[in-house]
Amino acid sequence: MRPTSARERRLIALLILTALVAALYFLVVAPIVAGFESRADRLDRLALTYTRNLRTIAAIPRLRRHAESQRAAAASFAAAVPNAEAGREWLRDRLQRAVEGAGGEFREGDDVEASPGWVRASAEARMTLTQLIAALAHLQNQPPWLIVETVSVTGGNAIAPGQSPVLEVEIEATIPLRPAAAR
């Protein structure tokens, strides 16, 4: 082995120094910097979560008012009765009141099978076209809102001059059922 020159010794020393600096950077400095970056990211996420939580907490009164208004409006979309039988009776009575309120002659009300959570009833009546329009308007424009599923109209007696013909009408309606709380 030959002796190393001063230039080679300086080059070896420079390589050793570079290796020490790189080792110091990768073993000490990089983990510390990575820890600071991860804590900064976590701090940013926590700040965003905190801001979101503040907005959610501030929105609670508005959300509560909205839920209360929806709860109050729910009564307009379902019949609040104790059970399905009472719901069918209520719906038949409502159909009868609509027909008689329009001036028609209520003949018969029947129960019709419905899906669970719904009640369905039909009514047979005799009325004029004007009375039919008034009865349907009353049914569809008064809460609780119901669905008029079918209207069957059959011409009754012959048309007389100056008089509206009397029609045989069958109206079938459905409404969702919301069981009322027992008192």
Tell me briefly what this model is.
The protein is of the alpha+beta class and 183 residues long. The chain has two domains: 1-75; 79-179, Ribosomal protein S6/Translation elongation factor EF1B (Alpha-Beta Plaits), CATH 3.30.70.60. It has helices at 6-74, 84-101, 129-141, and strands at residues 79-81, 105-112, 118-127, 147-155, 167-179.
Your description of this structure?
With 183 residues, the protein is an alpha+beta fold. The protein has 2 domains: 75 residues; 101 residues, 2-Layer Sandwich (Alpha-Beta Plaits). It has 3 helices and 5 strands, in the order αβαββαββ. Strands 1, 2, 3, 4 and 5 form a 5-stranded mixed beta sheet that branches. Helix 2 crosses helix 3. The protein is rod-shaped. The model has no long low-confidence stretch (mean pLDDT 88). This is General secretion pathway protein GspM. InterPro entries: T2SSM_b (IPR034756). It holds the Pfam family T2SSM_b.
